[in-house]
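For the sake of transparency, this paper describes our internal protein records without simplification. Because each token names a local backbone shape, the row as a whole describes the fold. One such record is reproduced below, unchanged from the form in which we store it.
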Amino acid sequence: MRAGFAAAMLLCPLAFAGPAAAQPKVNLEQTFADSLTALPKEELAASGGFYVPAYSSVAMSQGKLRVDFSVTLSVHNASETQALVVRRIAYFDTTGKQVESYLKAPVAIKPLATISIFIPTDDVRGGTGANFIVDWAATGEIAEPVVEALMVGGIANAHYAFISQGRPTRTAGKK
């Protein structure tokens, strides 16, 4: 009984923690300078976008407990020969409100290189239904980028990690 009470006391702060303040802005151009290249001078003839579900918080124990997760969004250029231009990386909360925008201007990722965004465990602004939108372009046909989010977190001695794959954003409906 005492062990259960002690565990409950340890977990209570996690269940009632408030949202964290905004994290300092990440400068992708500096952080990932080795992964980036100059923007292509040619016209960007191909483009696309990804919707990436992310979970900065997950409800557990019949909704009585909230577990917070760090989130790492990774954008991988799957092309062996061509630069991938990333036009937008935006982070949205459960209500669809934009929480953060990570690019001031488009960046070009070298072939087979990666950039990423990290959201620490204590930044729960995204909530249980957080998501990213990533818009990209290229000068011609290109291998579709790989965009995914890795969530890592835990409570007590239990640790969890899971990946959410980005889904291409395409218009659905009748033709």
